[in-house]
Amino acid sequence: DAKTTQPTSMDCAEGRAANLPCNHSTISGNEYVYWYRQIHSQGPQYIIHGLKNNETNEMASLIITEDRKSSTLILPHATLRDTAVYYCIVRVSRAAGNKLTFGGGTRVLVKP
Amino acid sequence: KAGVTQTPRYLIKTRGQQVTLSCSPISGHRSVSWYQQTPGQGLQFLFEYFSETQRNKGNFPGRFSGRQFSNSRSEMNVSTLELGDSALYLCASSLAQGGSTEAFFGQGTRLTVV
């Protein structure tokens, strides 16, 4: 699976949009971009994933560049409960195999 | 719909002992994966089971093993515990029926080896 690069940490003001970047310059054509987050002492939580097109759900939006070498997770209105470590993962989706390779992630601190 | 359930939540064991952790996946999910999380190494993949067969394995010693039952429930076992095995052990389940499938994680079992 392709390697990802994320900033180590970032702060965000409560109520503002949080934009989390992720570089995945070696991504292959059949690899999806997944985002998970982990709130302290809990298991990781799935947020969103995409292949080529931008995606949006009730939690966040995912913007993938046209060349697919980078993406941005957008939390539209950050709340204090969004403070967590956010992981960007790229992986091949196939029926045989659900291994996730986690990097260091971005530690996001939402401040009042 | 119930989430992924891991038991026990906390465990303290002595070096040299063995331990068994349990994971009940979301109903209907056939894939169960296990991860180890430590402050130094982060989240690392241990292994994945699908329909009672191990189909992916991470880079861990043979002391770490697992199995999956016909009802998709899974157990992992660590034998001859070492201090370095102290970690949060996480289980994740997914439908694993082609296409892009997300994994749902349990709350984890925090193992302390003394």
Please, could you describe this protein's structure?
The complex is a heterodimer of chains A (112) and B (114). Chain A is built from no helices and nine strands. Chain A has 112 residues and is an all-beta fold. In chain B, the strands form two sheets. In chain B, strands 2, 4, 5, 6, 9, 10 and 11 form a seven-stranded mixed β-sheet that branches. Chain B has a four-stranded antiparallel β-sheet with strand order 1-3-8-7, with no helix packed on it. Chain B is globular and about 35 Å long. The interface between A and B is medium-sized, with 24 and 30 residues.
Number of helices of chain A: 0
pLDDT averaged over residues of chain B: 92
Uncertain parts of chain B: none
Greatest chain-chain contact: A-B, 24 and 30 residues
Roughly what fraction of the amino acids of chain A lie in strands? over 45%
Shape of chain A: globular
Class per helix and strand makeup of chain B: mainly beta
The number of helical elements of chain B comes to 0
Strand order within the widest beta sheet of chain A: 1-9-8-3-4
Condensed summary:
The complex is a heterodimer of chains A (112) and B (114). Chain A has 112 residues and is mainly β. Chain A is built from no helices and nine strands.
Write the layout of secondary structure elements.
The complex is a heterodimer of chains A (112) and B (114).
Chain A: E1 9-13, E2 18-23, E3 31-38, E4 45-50, E5 55-56, E6 61-64, E7 70-75, E8 84-92, E9 106-111
Chain B: E1 5-7, E2 10-13, E3 19-24, E4 31-38, E5 42-50, E6 53-57, E7 64-68, E8 74-78, E9 87-94, E10 104-105, E11 109-113
